[in-house]
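Researcher: Before we compare anything, I want clean individual predictions. No alignment, no superposition, just each chain on its own. First chain goes here; please echo the sequence and then give the structure tokens.
Model: Echoing the first chain and its structure:
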Amino acid sequence: MRKKTPSIPSILANLLLVLLALLFLFPFYWIVTGAFKVQNVAVAIPPQWFPEEPTLDNFRALFKNPVWRWGFNSFFVASSEMIGVCLTASMAGYVLAKKMFPGRKLIFILFVSAMALPKQVILVPLFTMLADLNWIDTYKGLILPAIGWPFGVFLMKQFAQTIPSELVEAAKIDGCSEVRLFATIILPLLKPALGALAIFTFINAWNDYFSQLIITRSTPMMTLPLGLATLQGEYTTPYGVLMAGAALASLPMITIFLLFQKAFTQGITMGAVKG
């Protein structure tokens, strides 16, 4: 069979995609290379595009701080939020998609409306509530308020609508309990959406600087973004050290994306077919 010759529009589209990919990758390249530059080279103009004399001094200076503790806090908080959001959102999404009860549509509208609220609007009442519960500067205060994520419920509900209702009814006729139905039938079918939601939740929790800044008080409870922000001086900023920390902070997010990449793609494409 004769191979189809690429058309000029498709070639131009591919070139545009390559240029956009390089454009989005350049900041990451600049951070990684900057982590191996000394201070005067990191801020030099014109810039040095590749370190001619790479050094590990930035990493040595970085690890003089409790970076491992900050990294553990970030990973623990982000992982706990990811598991909690995936579990609660999958249950709520399944109920809103497949269970018929009074007020179902109203509840879903409230979830969608909550997505429009900026996080800053609820921070004051949230802080007051956490202070009353004595959860300030604790893992509970960092994790539990973020588990009820409206976007997660919205995504899982949209995807759960694609599950055939006949499958659910057949399982009930066979005597399957609700817990077993959800654990053995619904959850496996929701894997693509769960993969997408896991990536969204982990990245959102890992980068949630503002909320963690309000809730955290002590240095040992700081997450990695907060800890790196404390390295900035009043008069000078160690750009090489900050770039070294940023390069290390990006590794968990890249790993999570690579692990859930296939499920992420399926979840985005399949979960949007029904409204």
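Researcher: Okay. Second chain, same rules.
Model: Second chain and its structure:
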Amino acid sequence: MSLKFSVITPSFRQGRFIERTIQSVLSQGIEDIDYIVCDGGSDDETVEILKKYHPQIRWVSEADKGQSDAVNKGISMTTGDIIAWINSDDIYYPGTFNAVRKIFESQAEIEVIYGDADWIDELDEIIYPYPTENWNYKRLIETCYICQPAVFFRRSLIEKFGSLDSSLDYCMDYELWLRYGKYVDFYHLPQKFAGSRMYKTNKTMGKKLQAHYEVVQMLKQKFGKVPDNWMMSYAFVKAEDMTKLNKFDDKEVKKLIWISFIEIVKLKKVISPKIIIKVLFWYFFPGLSWFRRLRLLEGQQ
């Protein structure tokens, strides 16, 4: 008996992208996909596009409490064995669902599968490969190396450990991976599954400080402390937001790094050697730092 997929797309005013998302799902060649779009009452072209694809997809367009609420609503309205959600500006790559189904059907002990992914631009062109890593729970606490649309999991995990935390606006996926990963190992298939769209006005790029702050608070609540990597990233983004200094300018970046260190000192009572070493590395080799790797994602040449 074949396992059935439930795919949920939360949406709000993404009319310029959502058709590409829908087509990437429907073109997977899987006949028994239960696909639902939970739109938050968009007033752009979204609803007209959704109407075009009835009855291939189900959809609702009504006010909700945000992205997490929309995904949870979609999960509750579906019955498939395998759950995935893909945002209304992301896409699946061809062959993804067949690869995932083969593993789930042949290895009953596997409960979560994630693949590799790309960051893509507004025209679906690849900007940069998503920095996916092999499964390691301790490492996952330090950095989110799993790309959300490249994840598929069994419905039984929802029944055991719950769905998305609707109080979170930015890191709901990361929190879910941390919650599930505490109990089950994830299976990493090194195959490109999805394209995650990055552009200046999306949530990830447009509200970096709010997103980092939410991650820091979530980790503190879940583990009682915040890993150095996340604290350093938050301090850097906060310093960048306060000063408006350009991290891609060799003259300004050193000042920005120094202000970041001051912010870390304010946030942490004890500064670990790891933080000091990392800050010195940033200072002397800014070109090799994680924030310089964002150049292409932020449209910098």
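Researcher: What stands out in the second chain?
Model: The first strand starts at residue 5 and ends at 11. Additionally, The chain has two domains: 5-197, 227-299.
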